[in-house]
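Shape matters. As here.
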Amino acid sequence: MTALDDLADRYVDEFASLDPCLAALMGIAGQDARLTDYGPEASQARVELARRTLAELARTPVEGDAGRIAAAMLRERLDVEVALDEAGVLEGALDTIDGPVQRIIRAVELLDQGAATDWKAAQARVRALPEALAGLRVSLERACARGRVAARRQVVRNARECSDVPVYLAELSARYGDGPLRGGLDAAVRAASAALVEFAGFLTGELAARAPERDALGADRYRLGVRDFLGTDLDLEETYAWGWEELARIQAEMAEEAARILPGEPLPAVLEALDADPAHRIKGAEAFRKWIQELADRAIADLDGVHFDIPEPLRRIDCRIPPVESGIYYLAPAEDLSRPGTVWWTVEEDPSGDIVTWSAPSTMFHEGAPGHHLQLGVTTLNPVLNRFQRVSSELYPGHCEGWGLYAERLMDELGHYRDPAHRLGMLAGGQQFRAARVILDIGMHLELRIPAGTGFHEGERWTPELGFEFLRANKGPDPDSVVAFEIDRYLGRPGQAIAYKLGEKIWLEAREAARRRDGAAFDLKEFHRRALDLGPMGLDLLRAELARS
């Protein structure tokens, strides 16, 4: 244990104590019965912790390459936290996928483990929910008085999510059955449900009335988002142009794949035929959950010992359907392995009750193995990394989501899309969609013009309405509600949506550089092992370290 390791460990303990909800998402043990205090004083205490740790890091000796990397990634993260605070970003923050409301709700959901549920901790978190919302309300009111209010779109989306949660809490309580906690759990659920309804009313009433209609956050705020989520600096207009080029390349590849499925038919007709094909439909959420579980299990069995060495604790993924709409996402195993790696997959059934599956395999490879489950799981179990490195993958979307998208493409290279429909699903649902995100995210926040030659509202400036139309044409077979969720998501978290494609770009470039450097000695399995052993970090640091390998 070096002095730097000791500092990182102490930071994790203090950070988890001050932010139990984020600690829960990161898999940090020891705070299972608590929720984060989102009041102004507690929020400021979290920023002060970052400042104090930065100051101590500057005085801490660094030993060897491992220490150099660990110090650089910790400094990078702490610098961003301070910069976000100084820019006023943290004050009054609400967004669609990872704001305070979502973290409070997920902290409760994470304890919902069926027969393995820690009911005392679950009761404690449900009981703490009214106080957590009350503190958040004080912070939002204070920010509002200073003129800092999230866009109305974000406010309304959060209110809708709050209104959905009481149904889930009632279902959670009912699953407990009879026991000594029955009365206390019921009382906690009633109080939490009332608090959620009241908070939703505050959002749709007082806060929405003060919220700006404009969603675009501008170039300065966007660059800070890029620094936060990707750990790099970008020429935004150059990246916007690259997004259009990448989208055109992928769409040409899609047309070629569609011609193999239904020769002579245009792409829209092929997609429509796949949607209607009974071979690519499953009835009901539970049947779909079992199907993706089998897909995840099979991928691990096929990859282990051949392309990756998968540790025994990672040979299980828990695939689950979230109780409220929250997209598709992965959570790493808890650091003490009390919680397995978990894929949460929001499903949308069509009027017949069916779920379309032809685009699902690539998403499962992204979230499971060789994607997030392997990447984040290996990081969690890596004894060479300090504790902060092992639990902080959630804080580095460029690294993490870039690897997930790289994993989708890797499985194509390894021959795992044996059904041409599944390969088209990878191109349409993963590659095309993520390239469109680069265009949309930068375009909407900077209100850029749509270039000539694109065939889409050429010369007009981006708006959320144009974004919806564009994404509807470039996201695969999802219903309008999912597309609307995506637009709200991008507008609430500037820079996050481009982490996938820009991160994948770095992973692919680093692999090609290693292939050229090593020549005939290049070993793909060994490249992946070395790369994942580095742990999470921003893209600039990742590029530099992979060049050293």
Remarks:
- The longest strand covers residues 328-331.
- The first helix runs from residue 3 to 18.
- Residues 3-213 form one domain.
- The beta strands are 281-283, 318-320, 328-331, 342-345, 354-356.
